[in-house]
Amino acid sequence: MNVVSQYRDLLGIQLRSMRDEVWMIAIIQVMLGVGLMLGTGYLIPNISDMSATFLVTGCAVQAFVTMGLVMLPQLLAQSKAEGRIEYFLTMPVSREAYLLALITVVAITALPGVAFTLGFGAWVYGLSFGFEPAFLAVTVLCILSLAGVGVALAMFSPHQQLVNATTQLIIFYVLFFSPVILPASQLPEVLQQSAKLAPPTYAADGVRATLTDLPGTNLGKDLVVMSGFAVGSIALSAFAIRRRG
Predict the structure, then answer these.
(1) pLDDT in tens, 74-132
(2) pLDDT of residue 206
(3) Cα–Cα distances in Å, from 69 out to 94, 110, 136, 174?
(4) What separation in angstroms does the CA of 26 have from each of 8, 56, 63, 222?
(5) CB count, 10 Å around CB of 173?
(6) Global pTM?
(7) Domain spans, the chain
(8) Residue 90 C-alpha from the chain's centroid
(9) Using an 8 Å Cβ cutoff, are 76 and 154 in contact?
């Protein structure tokens, strides 16, 4: 059986095992994106179009962050603790196909939140988003880079509790101390520099570069950096999962 067939079958297994949760997770992502956008917007009196554009796109990217860097590593850490990963490792399948199947589930559950947040935000704030074909590449790399790092975090962490604590710190950092919802110019210098090491920074910038005319974006750099995070993290995760089986 080739890798494509393995990937298809593994994805089917993952979706069937989560058939009662996938739709609920997708709805929760929609609610989180919209709630975060409206709640933060209420704190900004007389919000300008530029600030609203930054806010809406940042809240949309937050769906990728929540699924890829929080929920996925937590689920994987739980699977490690319960021995479910070992079940898949007994199968004669590609480890990369298994990882890509997990990442595809992230995409399926995150994309409704991204799309609805963008559409609802454009309606609420009277915004008009453009569309460049590169947005599709940005979306794929957002998913691969964020989920890839999330998988690596879960695979290399020795304890489930450590993964849970780390992911909570990650979402707190992304919400309040990174240029995802807030412009980099509003952050202290130390946070501006630390943001250069975080994949959500490039995911948010890439989305803005392909949907808006906000100044200061750098699409080429975003694509290169996200590709590096995606390839590196998935390669490390595959290495770690091979060591387990």
Answers:
(1) 888 888 888 777 777 777 778 778 888 888 888 888 889 999 999 999 999 999 998 88
(2) 94
(3) 23, 12, 20, 10
(4) 21, 18, 9, 26
(5) 17
(6) 0.90
(7) 3-244
(8) 29
(9) yes
